Each structure stands twice: as C-alpha cells, then as structure tokens.
Amino acid sequence: MLAAMPAFSAPRDKPELGVKLWGIDFSNPIGLAAGMDKDAVAVHGWETLGFGFAELGTITPRPQAGNEIPRIWRVPERRALINRLGFPSEGMDAVAPRLEQLRKAGVSIPLALNFGPNKDTPLEGIAADYGALIARLGPLADFIVVNVSSPNTPGLRNWESPRKMSELFTAIHEHAGKLPRPTPVLVKISPDLERNELFRICDSAPALGIDGIVACNTTVAREAVGVSSPHPGGLSGEPILIRTRELIRDMYTHTRGKIPIIGVGGIASAEDAWLHIRAGASLVELYTGLVYEGPGLIARIKTGLADLLHRGGFRSISEAVGIDR
Ligand SMILES: Cc1cc2nc3c(=O)[nH]c(=O)nc-3n(C[C@H](O)[C@H](O)[C@H](O)COP(=O)(O)O)c2cc1C
What we know:
The protein is α/β, with parallel strands linked by helices. It has one domain (about 15-320): TIM Barrel. The protein contains ten helices and 13 strands. It has helices at about 45-50, 90-105, 125-135, 160-175, 195-210, 240-255, 270-280, 290-295, 295-310, 315-320, and strands at about 20, 25, 30, 55-60, 70-75, 80-85, 110-115, 145, 185-190, 210-215, 235, 260-265, 285. The longest helix has 16 residues, at about 295-310. The chain is globular, with a radius of gyration of 18 Å. The relative contact order is 0.15.
C-alpha cells in the first residue's frame, strides 16, 4: 500500500549541503541504504526524515519470500546487525505501480532502485533478470544500483569477479541504453573483496558503463572485525565503519576521484559521514545507524555536517570529497 503523504516535511537543507552528481540535484548527501525499504512502501517517510535520497530495494523480478525467520539479529554491544534476509521482495510488478503513482504525485528526493536476481534463477538467467528489472523499473529510477554483493543469495558474489562482471555489465549496458533517458548505473560491491579485485573493478568501470560504485554491502567477516556471533549472514554497523572508509579511500586514490563513490557502512554520526566524505565518498548512506540512533539521526547528521564544513573552511560538500586521500 502506498504510504500516506506526510503531515509535515523536513526543513529545507542548507545550500552548502547540496551535491550535484550525474546531473542530479541532491539537497543533502545523506541517503537511505538499500534493504530498509525493499518494496518502496515508505518513500514519503524518508523524505520527511530529511534524507537527501533513498535507495529502494533490493527488488527482484518475481516475488519471493526470502529466507526463513529468524533472519535478522542485533549485536548491541557493537551497535551492529546481522541479517540473512535473502532478498524478500514483492517483485517488480508490485513495485512498479507504486513508483508510478509516486512519480505522478511528485517526490522531492532522488530515488535509486537497487536490483538483484531471484534466488531460483539459474546462472545463465541472471543477466536476463537484471535486464528485465531495468526495462520494467529503470524508467522510474533516478539512478540504478546493480547489487552483486549480498552474501545471502548463493553465488551472487561470483559476479564480482572481473570476467563475470564484464559479462554481466555488457548485458546490463545494452538494456540501460534502451531507457527513455540516460540513467546512471552503479554497482554495489562487498567489503570482502581483495584489493586487486577492487582495483580491477575500478579499472574496468568506464569501459563497462559503470557510472559509480556503492561501497559497500555487509561483510561475512567476523573475527577480522572483532565480532563473535553464531549467526550466519551479513554484518553491518560499527564493525564495518573503518573497513568501509579504507575501501573508499583506496578506490578514490586509485581512480583519482574519477568514479563517484557512495560510501555506506557504519555511519551513525555527522563525524562518521564527514570522514567517509573526506575519504572520497560524494554521497553517503546508512541503515544500521538509523536502527540504533532513531529517526532524529538524519537531522543531527545534517546539522553536524554543516558545522564541520564551516569549521574546516569548506564552502560545499564537493570541496571536501577525497581531501583525506
Ligand atoms: C537488515 C538489512 C537488510 C539489508 N538488505 C539489503 C538489500 O536488500 N540490498 C542491498 O544492497 N543491501 C542491503 N543491506 C546492506 C545495506 O544497504 C548497507 O550496505 C550495509 O548495511 C552497510 O551499511 P550500515 O552499516 O549503515 O548498515 C541490508 C542491510 C541490513 C542491515
């Protein structure tokens, strides 16, 4: 069901928080990370909380239930979550009319749509799954995120290998080229990639029509990030903050800032967002921080960010991107 229009809206963002990327205007750089609103049911809520954009999904072509419950756990002593949701999705045909209605009514923030394949799609059908999603939902997206990094869909991360990624993005590019207007296509990567794999993705991105990188998804690491838990799945929140920042910095340095990065992982304060930006993220997103800090977090981050900008002598977010490389 479509969420009702908000009774009030977030105050207008300070102009210095604005970011222009891929020709899209973001009134602030703080986005909702994928997974929170998988079926695009609460878009007006994200606007009202003050997000600068929202990444909806992961949406799969056909509806699927995801893994059995329990499938999400808190690790409160580390302000972390572990999930093995496995892409529960109402499917693209349920999400499309909702987005069409939202577009007609007007949405004040850019919407990214995050796509993934169905669990039971055979290997040879994966590219076609992404193709179907782009054809059906691409016209309703401000930008698209190709998710090849969820640890909860068996085999999905294999598509992060350079050869498979090249194969996949050749197909994806073909479908995206048929959209009624040019729509940026980003890839979302895992924090568990080796540096050489990461750099190969960065190097091949321009040729593959990859317009940006979302770094990063949840990790399957436990010991390396000092978490011991019996639960399987992807770990998010504070334990991945530093790892994410290192990834952002390495990618920014390697590409000399040529490929826009959306930094996501562990953000729970203005300082966290600021340091991801300074490491090289043009925009940032969060999920777990919102769960632990509550809905007031977005306003607090924006106030804090504006403060950090002024104190550092920066006139805009874009001026600070990659300054710590
Ligand atoms: C419960 C849960 C579900 C998620 N589902 C998705 C998803 O469907 N697609 C996706 O690309 N990322 C998904 N993520 C990953 C987040 O988008 C994000 O990349 C990750 O949690 C790191 O950010 P955080 O530390 O701010 O949570 C999910 C994360 C959580 C905690």
